[in-house]
Amino acid sequence: MNFSGFQKLTLLDYPEHVACTLFTKGCNFRCPFCHNALLVTETQEKGETYSDESVLSYLTKRVGILDGVCITGGEPLLQKELPDFIRKVKALGYQVKLDTNGSFPDRLASLVNEGLLDYVAMDIKNSMERYGETIAVPDFDTTPIEESIDFLLEGRVAYEFRTTVVAEFHTTQDIVAIAKRIQGAPKYFLQIFVDSGCLIGENLHSVDKNVMENMKNAAAEHLSEVSLRGL
Question: Who contacts 95 (Cβ-Cβ below 8 Å, separation ≥6)?
């Protein structure tokens, strides 16, 4: 398989790990606020790509220096070759973190049950009632999202839930609805929206810091740990 981006060192993407980050291309959502828009809209291979062989060669040389690999996108679970690639990464002794939108619960469960994932970060785009609107997929059936939430809540793998908060899409009421839905989760992060300059949508805005604090406090009434990112 080919990756469309390769950050060879990160101290941020994988909590408590010195890691690298791999970006897959393609997504089944069209979130207007996506900060990796070209990985979603440019379906043809353009620009520099990285083969799994070249990535594995790099990881082999960095054993003992790096300890984690973060796989993000796009939506990585769209890639049929992903399980085999992760098996090779795990054989080198690395911890693997997966970022996912949660729309493929069976594929997620398969990777976890095989012991291929050490950490999962699942994006929850909005309250279930506003999902289709938020991801720009009208009439979206949230059943897969709910199944992924329930699977992670079982605690078979370390995980976090997170929501990127955008003024045009999220209210405190929405955040509370999410918090209630994921009760029992050990970590929930509210991420402030930042315009990367390469968005699918236009005229989107971040939420005021004080409003973000209010959202955090409201969510914390239902969860044990709620944190802000990006402030």
Answer: 14, 17, 19, 67, 68, 69, 118, 119
Pairing label, strands 19-23, 5-10 = antiparallel
**∠ CA 187-191-194 to the nearest 5 degrees?**
165
Q: Which two tokens stand for residue 56?
A: 């594995």
Token representation of residue 5: 């981006």
Q: Is 27 exposed, middle or buried (0-12, 13-18, 19+ CB in 10 A)?
A: buried
- Rounded CA gap, 69 and 77, in Å? 15
Residues 110-154: tens digit of each pLDDT: 999 999 999 999 999 999 999 999 999 999 999 999 999 999 999
Please, are residues 69 and 22 in contact by the beta-carbon 8 Å criterion? yes
pLDDT tens sequence across 96-107:
999 999 999 999
User: Burial letters for 130-164: b for 16+ Cβ neighbours within 10 Å, e otherwise?
Assistant: bbbebbeeeebebebbebbbebbbeeebbbbbbbb
Compute how many other C-beta atoms are within 10 angstroms of the C-beta atom of residue 168: 13
For the chain, helix (H) and strand (E) counts, in that order, are 8, 10
Rounded Cα distance, 96 and 207, in Å: 32
Residue 30: count of CB within 10 angstroms of its CB: 14
pTM of the predicted structure, to 2 decimals: 0.95
Strand arrangement, sheet containing 226-229 = 5-10, 19-23, 68-72, 95-100, 119-123, 158-165, 188-192, 226-229
